[in-house]
Design brief:
Elements: E1 2-7, H1 25-38, E2 47-50, H2 54-67, E3 73-74, H3 84-93, E4 98-103, H4 107-116, E5 130-134, E6 144-149
Helix pairs in contact: 1-2
């Protein structure tokens, strides 16, 4: 499986609750730029899974439109404080060959560090960062980081 991990774009400061924070104009532009510059490398992508929080939903919507009218699947397994092991269990059951996960810190870094066998916090994922991991068995230390890209602005 090719597993792509995308952190949402820059979001507005907390207004009422964290769940409803929206992407800023810069956040939208950064996500679009990241996806456009990575389109050639996302060729095997068949599914998008996304956190239910607004900023992640907006990020997945931008990615889905640019990749080719992909409809994201919303799951609590990608909420910021979700347990990565529960996500791994579900991923192992999936039939996906190319999957984009759209989520938040600290989860995106935990996923990347756990799958690639690196220390917690080793892979910092800034807003609009995108990583690609090759993995056959979804478990700790079983992934190979192919690349990690950060927004240039």
């Amino acid at each position: 499986m090719e597993l792509f991990i995308l952190r949402h774009g820059e979001a507005e400061p907390r207004t009422t609750t964290d769940d409803v924070r929206q992407l800023t104009d810069k956040g939208r532009a950064d996500v679009a730029r990241m996806i456009k510059s990575s389109l050639e490398d996302l060729g095997e992508l068949t599914h998008i899974w996304v956190s239910p929080l607004v900023r992640a939903q907006q990020t997945a919507e931008i990615a889905g439109e640019l990749i080719g009218d992909m409809e994201p699947y919303t799951t609590e397994l990608l909420s910021p404080d979700a347990d990565p092991q529960l996500l791994f269990n579900q991923l192992q059951l999936s039939e996906c060959q190319g999957l984009l996960l759209v989520s938040h810190q600290p989860l995106v870094s935990k996923i990347l560090d756990t799958l690639c066998g690196t220390a917690n916090g080793y892979h910092d994922m800034a807003t609009a960062s995108l990583a690609c991991v090759d993995i056959d068995i979804i478990a700790a230390d079983m992934g190979k980081l192919r690349w990690l890209r950060h927004s240039s602005t």
